[in-house]
Design a protein that fits this description.
alpha/beta, Rossmann fold, 2 domains, 20% strand
């Protein structure tokens, strides 16, 4: 048998090496594709242990579902609105962990009305303590730098004055849970909300360029982490999902100053109207509907997110059938 020349043997070795390299590269490519596909999937976890989807108070026909209070002092108006609904002891019991969720998103002063007023935060926290709360927590995951927002908005000072804990967004304070929504499935949620016994929604009344208004239901965006801007593509469905996931114990709408134009961030004092109004309620959908009509003249069914929430049985849009009290103090 004729022996191969050194050139032939070297050619065979290079051929085999090329085959081995090609196989290795194919394996790496397949492995990388699997890894990237796994990385691209949002991790899913079951809901947090012990988390109840609804923190809502039991209905009581003795009290209105909405209380509208106008006055000369913001704290007094907040207090009277909650009294009209039965008082804070109807909503908060001894030993409860109470989370107050203001709108604390923008690097603005209280006069610019882009955040919940500190006076409203202070009064709600004080009332929660008086009702027997074990812990009172003020928490929101806003847009601008959280510490600067908390200080400049006056909310940090209000929380300190009330003896409440102020929790700002950090990565360790979020947990991925399945919200069970049409759009919102597995998503990072601010842990304080998951660990609360009672949840008080404390939004500001503002114009919003995508949804028309930002009131109670839109305020729940501040419990989410992650890339929230992605939700703007189906924002109305996302808001209905949030309304279904979070059933607050009580909603207190701060409409002392209303950002009537160029929301939600505002900045121009000419866009702010001094309304001196607080609207509190146990029906979050009806509250948004009432405020949208009161401050912007909008028919509730023209706001798609409210229509969707109503269709899911989360509240009423037929305001003529909603029990309401209106008081001036």
């Amino acid at each position: 048998m004729a022996q191969s020349s050194p050139e032939q043997r070297r050619g065979r070795r290079e051929f085999v090496a090329d085959l081995l390299r090609a196989g290795a590269l194919a394996g790496l490519a397949g492995g990388a594709g699997w890894w990237l596909s796994r990385r691209g999937q949002q991790p899913e976890e079951p809901p947090a242990p012990g988390f109840e989807r609804s923190h809502a108070a039991a209905p009581d026909p003795k009290f209105p579902q909405l209380a509208v209070v106008r006055g000369q002092e913001a704290g007094a108006a907040v207090r009277r609105a909650i009294e009209e609904l039965g008082g804070m002891r109807r909503f908060v019991g001894r030993g409860d962990i109470v989370v107050i969720k203001p709108n604390m998103a923008w690097d603005r002063t209280p006069e610019q009305a882009a955040n919940t007023s500190p006076a409203a935060v202070l009064e709600v926290a004080r009332l929660a303590w008086d009702a027997g709360a074990r812990r009172v927590i003020v928490a929101d995951a806003g847009i601008n730098e959280p510490r600067r927002v908390a200080e400049r908005s006056g909310i940090a000072a209000a929380a300190r004055a009330a003896g409440a804990e102020l929790l700002l967004p950090e990565e360790s304070r979020f947990r991925i849970v399945d919200l069970g929504g049409e759009v919102l499935r597995a998503w990072p949620v601010f842990r304080p909300l998951l660990e609360a016994d009672k949840v008080i929604n404390l939004p500001a009344a503002k114009h919003h360029d995508l949804t028309g208004v930002t009131l109670g239901l839109k305020n729940w965006f501040g419990i989410l982490g992650g890339e929230r801007q992605r939700l703007h593509q189906r924002i109305h469905e996302s808001l209905a999902d949030l309304a279904q996931f979070v059933r607050p114990t009580l909603t207190v709408l701060d409409a002392w100053r209303v950002l009537v134009r160029n929301g939600p961030s505002g900045g121009n004092l000419e866009d702010v109207e001094l309304s001196k109004t607080v609207v509190a309620g146990t029906d979050a959908v009806a509250l948004d509907a009432y405020a949208a009509r009161l401050f912007w003249g909008l028919e509730p069914r023209s706001l798609r997110y409210l229509e969707l929430a109503s269709q899911r049985g989360l509240g009423r849009l037929d305001l003529e059938n909603v029990r309401r009290s209106e008081v001036t103090v």
